[in-house]
Amino acid sequence: MNNSQLSSSSLSSNGTDDYYYRVMTSFDQEQDLLFRTYANNNHLLMELNDNEDGDEAESRPRGAVPGHIVINRNREEAAYNLYIDYFAEVPRFPEEKFRKRFRMSKSLFHRIADAVKAHDNFFMQQRDGIGKLGLSSLQKLTAAFRMIVYGAPADSLDDYLKIGESIAIRCLKTLLLFPVYL
Question: What is the Cα–Cα distance from 127 to 56, expressed in whole angstroms?
Answer without folding.
Answer: 25
